[in-house]
């Protein structure tokens, strides 16, 4: 990617814009935190929310450098970030910690103990973990933007659209979770990179990256569908386009067995990290007592008693999920601790959260409908029909490209599951870190309706011949940033573009303000 960045000015601009957006995010959250701690007027306008969230006691006295770091970066450690930091420091002590998969907290601990080892005399472990989260998430969010650009170039066959989508990723509505001590940045980087490698035909590398992603977030398991679809589509096209000999029964069975075995092997690799972690949780919480309860510090024991948290082998009583036929701690925690399930969130008091998720829900549904209307036959045949028309010789470019189909299906499945079965307010970060469709379709809408993004006032909006923005004809200079151009010319853009950019920018800013003050957000 480094070699490409020297050759591709669009990728250089994507990386540079991502770095600037990440720096601005950190600067704003530090400023908001400082104002909240020192400005009485700001506290009146946006008071801290007394959230009933996981907040373990600090067992060691902070030094002056710890206090300074907390003042600068404390806004990144709220809500679920407390779980990740606690797991990285103490391991899976409480049962409900097991809802958070291990690869991200392990990475935090590795950086804190290795790269930040020289700081151990100045900073306690938790402070180094928080600093590790800042460094890792900054790196992963920048690399995720680059991976999304490369993926867009391959799938969309339109560099200008891929460029615009990657820039929008740096202004993601889920921005605060890409910066805070959450696993979204790491997951987005792994998933976009895996998709890119799969499109390039690097199946084994793609499978490895998808496998790592399933060790970061549970919805990474859904990505097995990309392998199943890729193998199934290849086999279907081979059957339709092959000679008569390939349709002979012995050869057909051999081909089918090869496809099935490869798909099963890849899917097993993707499921392996999740399955291993469930086994680890079973051994830890359902196995014989190890006397670990006696070694737990008293403040943490008291927290378990006060909040009803279950400790490892507490009083020798095993949790109910241990006796299930398939003892999966993840689904048990989602069910019992957070009441996650089909239609469980459909209550009148949750209307504000549904409104919070409304923009991304409408955008996702609009993307799916637009694609289906543009490619009805391709959708009805699930993309398994081999096209012999002239259209196949000159593949469509942009969002309507046939290769986008599987990504639309993936995003729609995630959207439907999130809307009906999850806490609906998390939909924005759920989709924003898992699917490129949110950014591709937004770029498509902007590109279709904004003359400012065309090479000149008469050029067709889907033309691919000229570079996007203010790049030079030879491609040697750095291209202009079309997102910045639109934001600076907000009075001239169309109402649709104002709404779209307003959604991205407002959620980008509001997420910082509310999350840093422990107020509920997506």
From TrEMBL:
Membrane topology note: Multi-pass membrane protein
One GO-annotated biological process of the protein: GPI anchor biosynthetic process
Major localization listed first in the record, in broad terms: endoplasmic reticulum
Pfam families tied to this protein: Mannosyl_trans2 (PF04188)
Keywords annotated in UniProt: Endoplasmic reticulum, Glycosyltransferase, GPI-anchor biosynthesis, Membrane, Transferase, Transmembrane, Transmembrane helix
Membrane-spanning residues: 129-149, 161-183, 256-277, 354-374, 397-421, 499-521
EC number: 2.4.1.-
Keyword Transport included in the entry's annotation: no
Pathway: Glycolipid biosynthesis; glycosylphosphatidylinositol-anchor biosynthesis
Compartments, as annotated in UniProt: Endoplasmic reticulum membrane
Sample GO molecular function, one term: GPI mannosyltransferase activity
Protein purpose: Mannosyltransferase involved in glycosylphosphatidylinositol-anchor biosynthesis.
UniProt family annotation: Belongs to the PIGV family.
Name of the protein: GPI mannosyltransferase 2
Species annotation: Chordeiles acutipennis
Annotated gene: Pigv
């Amino acid at each position: 990617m480094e070699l490409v960045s020297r050759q591709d000015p669009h990728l250089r601009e994507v990386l540079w814009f991502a770095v600037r957006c990440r720096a601005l995010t950190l600067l704003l959250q530090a400023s908001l935190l400082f104002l909240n701690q020192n400005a009485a007027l700001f506290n009146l306008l946006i008071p801290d929310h007394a959230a009933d969230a996981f907040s373990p006691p600090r067992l060691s006295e902070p030094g002056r450098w710890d206090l300074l770091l907390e003042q600068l970066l404390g806004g990144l450690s709220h809500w679920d970030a407390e779980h990740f930091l606690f797991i990285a420091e103490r391991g899976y002590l409480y049962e409900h910690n097991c809802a958070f998969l291990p690869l991200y907290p392990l990475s935090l601990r590795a950086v804190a103990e290795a790269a930040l080892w020289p700081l151990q005399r100045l900073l306690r472990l938790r402070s180094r973990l928080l600093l590790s989260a800042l460094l890792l998430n900054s790196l992963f969010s920048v690399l995720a933007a680059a991976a999304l650009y490369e993926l867009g170039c391959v799938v969309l066959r339109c560099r200008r659209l891929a460029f615009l989508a990657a820039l929008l990723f740096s202004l993601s509505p889920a921005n605060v979770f890409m910066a805070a001590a959450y696993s979204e940045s790491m997951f987005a980087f792994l998933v976009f990179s895996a998709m890119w490698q799969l499109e390039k035909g690097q199946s084994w590398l793609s499978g490895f990256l998808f496998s790592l992603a399933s060790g970061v977030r549970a919805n990474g398991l859904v990505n097995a569908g990309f392998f199943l679809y890729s193998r199934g589509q290849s086999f279907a096209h081979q059957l339709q386009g092959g000679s008569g000999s390939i349709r002979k029964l012995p050869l057909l069975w051999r081909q089918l067995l090869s496809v099935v075995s490869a798909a099963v092997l890849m899917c097993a690799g993707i499921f392996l990290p999740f399955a291993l972690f469930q086994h680890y949780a079973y051994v830890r919480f359902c196995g014989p007592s190890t006397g670990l309860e006696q070694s737990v510090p008293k403040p943490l024991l008291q927290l378990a008693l006060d909040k009803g948290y279950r400790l490892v082998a507490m009083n020798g009583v095993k949790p109910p999920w241990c006796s299930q036929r398939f003892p999966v701690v993840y689904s048990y925690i989602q069910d019992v601790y957070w009441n996650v399930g089909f239609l469980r969130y459909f209550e009148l008091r949750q209307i504000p959260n549904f409104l919070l998720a409304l923009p991304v829900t409408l955008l996702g549904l609009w993307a799916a409908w637009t694609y289906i209307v543009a490619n009805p036959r391709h959708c009805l045949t699930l993309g398994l029909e081999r096209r012999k028309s002239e259209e196949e010789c000159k593949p469509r470019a942009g969002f309507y490209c046939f290769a986008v189909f599987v990504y639309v299906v993936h995003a729609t499945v995630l959207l439907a599951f999130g809307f009906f079965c999850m806490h609906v307010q998390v939909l924005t970060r759920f989709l924003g870190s898992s699917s490129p469709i949110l950014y591709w379709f937004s770029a498509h809408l902007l590109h279709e309706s904004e003359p400012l993004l065309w090479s000149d006032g008469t050029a067709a909006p889907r033309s691919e011949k000229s570079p996007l923005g203010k790049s030079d004809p030879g491609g040697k200079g750095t291209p202009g940033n079309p997102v910045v151009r639109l934001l600076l010319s907000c009075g001239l853009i169309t109402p649709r573009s104002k709404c779209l950019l307003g959604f991205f920018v407002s959620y980008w800013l509001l997420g910082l303000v509310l999350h840093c003050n422990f107020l509920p957000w997506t």
